[in-house]
Amino acid sequence: MSAELVTGLQCRLCGKRYPKEALNFCTEDFGPLEVTYDYEAAARTLTRSALAARPRTMWRYHELLPIDGEPTVGQHVGGTPLIRADRLARVLGVRELYLKNDAVNHPSLSFKDRVVAVALSKAVELGFQTVGCASTGNLAGSVAANAAAAGLEAYVLIPDGLEQGKVLGATIYGARVIAVQGNYDHVNRLCSQIAFRYGWGFVNVNLRPYYAEGSKSMGFEIAEDLGWRAPDHVVAPMAGGSLIGKIHKAFQEFERLDLLEAPVRTRMFGAQATGCNPISATVKSGASKVKPIRHPDTIAKSLAIGDPADGYFASKLIGETGGWSEDVDDETIVDAMTLLAETEGIWAETAGGVTLAVAIKLIEQGKIDRDGSTVLCITGNGLKTQEALIGRLAKPVVIEPTLEAFENLVESHALWPMVSAAGAGVLVGSSA
Amino acid sequence: MATVRIPTPLRPHAGGQDRVETAGATVGEILANLGTAFPTLRERLFDGEELRRFVNVYLNNEDIRYLDDLATPVAENDEVSIIPAVAGG
Questions:
Q1: In this structure, which of A10, A43, A48, B77 has its CB flanked by the most CB atoms within 10 Å?
Q2: Of all helices (H) and strands (E), which one includes residue B62?
Q3: B54 vs A204: CB contact, 8 Å cut-off?
Q4: For the domain bounded by A82-109+215-389, which CATH number is listed?
Q5: B83 and A196 in contact by Cβ < 8 A?
Q6: pLDDT digits over A391-429, tens only?
Q7: Of B8, B66, B83, the CB nearest to A189
Q8: Residue A111, burial from CB neighbour count under 10 angstroms (0-12, 13-18, 19+)
């Protein structure tokens, strides 16, 4: 981390340059601002041999993360497992499948810890004492937890009607949690007004250029753990549409720094719920503008952003890389959550069900090549979205505390479904 | 007259004001009148006759894309908010 590596901000539309300040949009054309780096300088110290000696957190790639000093918030974030998922691969009928499991990220069990670690470290550098966010749930918990650990005051704004686990998972840390009547887009608009009026550091408003860069660490870890190569396919869930772009940017930056074994040819695939599919609808229709969804309605609440800020760039990237996007209904999401749990022992939140279910759909459609390498991004933990499963899973069988009762149960064949999903209708092929 | 809320970073282009009282029967008329009063603000909001891609406009609490876009009628005392679209997620 050195101030010289991060050179400033630049508008993605007109190219106008800005200093390192708390500003998310270009004052010439409202275009998004993106962090710029001195890649030549970064290449001098970000080498494979240097990395071998660094701790396994997201900060091992600090040359390509936009803070000037040492991280002061979220020092232990990242370094989540990339899991070779052979049992799930057999069910899906693909050769080489991996799960990037950010459901176990530290401290708040979602990929949002990555973006928050960067945004709040930057907030401290810029002198903010009060921070905030507009959240569909995971960000709320991450901002609250990381702000608490850093001694920052946090305002967390969420739509009313979020899952209890997400609400409690922000309140426990002492954040000021405010439920706004309406959906996420209402919350987001309000936060855009609050951030500048009060002069606070809102991670996904005025600190957004820095915040968004934190997601690159997920891509850096994937490429390093695959033995310095970018996979053939990545399937990422899309809410605001930022993550998918940053994962691809991470691969490109590694290529630029000459860290990869082969050029990046990754095809990017975006996953959404049918009840809130503004980006997948754009990709499928070939439209040039993303049409927002007025009333999102899905159990995948963490993805329920009707007006995605990066929808335009996400759909463009998907097209340019030869990828595709699909969406799935709530029942299919739950089936996929169950399949993931039963085959790989990972309880993902609803968004993980979206990602897996969309991957299955894309494999069936032939859009994902069964012989290629595929990484599914699991971004959040199932413990936080338990409502989605209530009434959908078998209840425990109740017996008397006697051996006889157990024997009767086992002999009655009233056995629980063993790996039910793997044997049922979700099988999508048999080439593996 | 309706009130137009200006995003803080754009206030230098609106005479330093955070709210501007502006006449007009539709959102489009109001933004046109605002643009006449503050030409450098107009350049930033519009690309030709169209709102720029990353400019969102709300009438009270609703995005005008869910109403009738620039043709959305505006009543006395309504509030029109200009909101940068690049936020959230």
A1: A10
A2: strand B62-63
A3: no
A4: 3.40.50.1100
A5: no
A6: 999 999 999 999 999 999 998 865 555 544 444 444 444
A7: B83
A8: buried
